[in-house]
Amino acid sequence: METFKEPIYYQNERLCMKVWQFTNTNPKSRQVAQQWHYHKEVELIIVQEGKLDIRTPDNRYHLSPGEVVLIGSNQLHHSHKPEDEPLVYIVLHVDLQPYFDPAMMMYYRHFSEMVRPLEDLNYMFLENERAKHEIGRIIVNIHAEMMDKTKGYEIAMSMHIKHLLLTLLRHDRRELLQPFGFVDATVMRPILDYVEAHLGEKIDMEDVSRSAGMSYTYFSKFFKKCVGVSFTDYVNRQRIRKAEQLLITKTDIVTDIAAAVGIENMAHFYELFKRYNGCTPKEYVRKLLRVVQ
After folding, report:
1. What is the mean pLDDT of the chain?
2. What is the pLDDT of residues 235-244, one digit of tens each?
3. How confident is the model at residue 103 (pLDDT cuts 50, 70, 90)?
4. Beta-carbon neighbour count of residue 219 at 10 Å?
5. For the chain, how long is the longest CA-to-CA vector?
6. What's the angle, vertex CA 161, arms to CA 19 and CA 190, rounded to 5?
7. What is the pLDDT of residue 178?
8. Residue range 190-244, pLDDT digits in tens
9. pLDDT tens, 2-14?
10. Among residues 209, 203, 213, 202, which one has the least CA distance to residue 224?
């Protein structure tokens, strides 16, 4: 079983997105098992004809015509066509970061998945027909704009993405997307990018605070206020998220993976992994293997 980081080639670099309609007429017996994969872009899918199964490590989504699913940034997933009938669906990949203007910044930590994965929002498509229909319609409209490329389509696409995010906010009956204090993305983004780039190394909060132009004490309070968790907790969660991706490669063993995400103490690695996943690394891999069999 392998996993890979799927490159997403944008149709318009300024919009940071790709949207495409796929048609699959192959019978189930001729389907090739898809690998687990991930990408930094958020993914939304609407099925227009036939059926499609989407799997993540913790959930299975059975999509029929009109149904949608949301997959977060760097979320492991794979898809499967479960029946012989033709399958038609639209896939939207979008990097949300360029769409965070000042009006969005109270929700930055949620849509940047600092608090919880965006996958958690899929509940609303099961509980709320209106939300499902509206998100599906937005995906279809984005696809139409990208295909037609009529004058001003870039503006229309940007408006559709904002409409999509607003729809998620307005239909969030479980209040997962609570507004928070203003976050300056020009300050926070370099910090998050630094953490992502140095997960395999020691990350010293004093060095990070200095690069952000803050004192150690102020940075500690600033980060927790913006993100909702301490800097150490955030780094540990990102290390384990990376380990989840590496665990399902063919060649890496657990000790190598722990070292690759900057954790030399194996007892600490196992403790963190179980804290965030409720299982050991071996149990996690076994679960993923069962999914694709």
Report:
1. 90
2. 999 999 899 8
3. confident
4. 20
5. 61
6. 100
7. 80
8. 998 999 999 999 999 999 999 899 999 999 999 988 888 899 999 999 999 899 8
9. 557 788 999 999 9
10. 209
DSSP secondary structure of the chain: --EEE-----SBTTTTEEEEEEEE---GGGPPPPPEEE-SSEEEEEEEES-EEEE-SS-EEEE-TT-EEEE-TT--BEEE--SSS-EEEEEEEE--GGG--GGGGGGHHHHTTSSS-GGGGGHHHHH-HHHHHHHHHHHHHHHHHHHH--TTHHHHHHHHHHHHHHHHHHT-TT--S---S---HHHHHHHHHHHHHTTTS---HHHHHHHTT--HHHHHHHHHHHHSS-HHHHHHHHHHHHHHHHHTSSS--HHHHHHHTT---HHHHHHHHHHHHSS-HHHHHHHHHHHH-
Classify residue 144 by burial, with Cβ atoms within 10 Å: 0-12, 13-18, 19+: middle
- Angstrom CA distances, 88 to 23, 45, 66, stand at 4, 11, 11
Strand order in the sheet with 78-80: 60-63, 52-55, 78-80
Locate 222 and state its tokens: 């600033």
* Residue 116: predicted pLDDT: 84
Angstrom distance (rounded) from CA 3 to CA 268? 25
- Amino acid identity for residue 246 in this structure: L
Rounded CA separation 281/270 (Å): 7
